[in-house]
Amino acid sequence: MYKVLKKCGRAKRAEFHTPHGVIQTPVFMNVGTAGAIKGAVSTEDLEQLKCQVELSNTYHLHLRPGDKLIKEMGGLHKFMVWDKPILTDSGGFQVFSLGLLRKIKEEGVYFSSHIDGRKIFMGPEESMQIQSNLGSTIAMAFDECIGLPAERPYVEASVARTTRWLERCKKEMHRLNQLEDTVNPKQMLFGINQGATFEDIRIEHAKRISEMELDGYAIGGLAVGESHAEMYRILDEVVPYLPEEKPTYLMGVGTPENILEAVERGVDFFDCVLPARNGRHAHVYTNKGKLNLLNAKYEKDDSPIDDTCGCPACRRYSRAYIRHLFKAKEMLAMRLCVMHNLYFFNSMMEEIRQAIEEDRFHAYKAAKLDGFRENGK
After folding, report:
1. Can you tell me which residues bind Zn(2+) (predicted)?
2. Residues 67-84 pLDDT 10s
3. Which of 186, 231, 325, 348 could form a disulfide with 330 if both were Cys (CB 3.0 to 4.6 A apart)?
4. CATH superfamily entry for domain 2-272
């Protein structure tokens, strides 16, 4: 059940009730592709970092260690010792990113494993079966993520096929949830809106999938090469055609700036690898912009990454020490920066929720964006 508690313009503050707890939205999902956040971050750490939802990847877990093994171990929640919500993406984006290693047909996609080259087939039913074995809270429908730029005839054919795949996903998930040995009989399904940067195709697709009465709706195929202005234009056009009484998820986005802009346009759910990836390379987010701790000016800087932050790294360690750890190639450097970045993103979502509740989101957004620009002045 999804309940909007407060609106500030199109920005929504809501609660999403799931089999694994209530998700307060807007929310940033912390990406643990293979069942762990890269950077030596444990599930105990995630609780300390205010993580509400962990996101794992169907494609990667299917290849290693295998979804059937995870089912034998009691499902992904038990396997990774995490009792809060988990969203699994369908594998569609990974298949898209394989490029020449894949072949798309009506029945599904034939591709080669990036690990050992073995031939694999994945269609809507297979994706649902894998996600059912994982037992995630929310399963994503299998779709084709279209690369940009894209020709209109191809986009039209692809979106029509994605719609047919979604119907098959819904039917298969219903079947799987009835099985006696299913890990999570209350598994939820989100559909995905596609259509590249053609707003009319996007809108028609949004109308069509909205009729299917799914648990939530995602906007896919953005943040794949188009400009930020194009992404915001598509959100302006498409979000109003998705059900307001269901959560809206912008896949693979993004930067703090992207999130603020998308929340203003009515988006609830976000995910992105950037906080963890950037953290592993000494790039950290602060309320005064992004810093590169490898810069020489931080060699003797005894201040925390961000003096307004309460994360485990900022409470105890200096920029100088963390920079030293990177130079010494100590794993602790990555761990501290990933933890800081995740805490920063999750805390920002807390602030966003509070700002919407207090009917001051637009002022909050403007002040936050001004702060991010400060470091570049």
Report:
1. 309, 311, 314, 340
2. 999 999 999 999 999 999
3. 325
4. Queuine tRNA-ribosyltransferase-like (3.20.20.105)
